Amino acid sequence: MNPISIAIGTDHRGHAMKSKIIEHLTQKGDLLVLDMGAHSETSVDYPDFAHPVAEAVENGNAKMGIVICGTGNGVAMAVNKHQNIRCGLCWNNEIAELIRQHNDANIIAIPGSYVDDATAIQMVDTFLSTDFEGGRHTRRVDKICVC
User: Which among 8, 5, 2, 41 has a CA at the least distance from the CA of 121?
Assistant: First the structure.
């Protein structure tokens, strides 16, 4: 069985958290993590690392994505510009679950300056293991794209 690919990208504010999430995910053994950067805490522009995550999900190289910046808002705005990307900003586990169940989110945005590493890892685990409920939510999700 091929491992599931997960793309992850961050700016300098989320670099340390990204490293911990990657370590956690690779220990699971059944996930392949595509690290889109940043690779240090040197100041960078978040879209340069968010767009490659969205592109990986769009073109099927990754099943889902994780983006991190200080507030999570910048990276969420950037990836949501892509067709068929549904990214939700999460700061607790319940929201991470709901963006999958109700919105079929395929990328999670994490505010690295406002959640601790343990919460971020818990949200990522929940996000990756929660299924979309479908049903009445499908109709709503189908109305998101203005393609």
Answer: 8
- Whether residue 111 is contained in a domain is answered as yes
**CA neighbor of 133 nearest in space, from 107, 106, 103, 109:** 103
d(CA 79, CA 42): 22
Q: Distance between CA 142 and CA 43 in Å, rounded?
A: 37
Answer whether the bond into residue 62 is a cis peptide, omega within 30°. no
| Residues carrying an active site annotation | 102
Please tell me the total count of domains within the chain. Answer: 1
Is the entire prediction scored with pTM above 0.70?
Answer: yes
User: Which amino acid makes up residue 78?
Assistant: A
In tens, the pLDDT along 79-104 reads: 999 999 999 999 999 999 999 999 99
Residue 147 in any domain: the answer is no
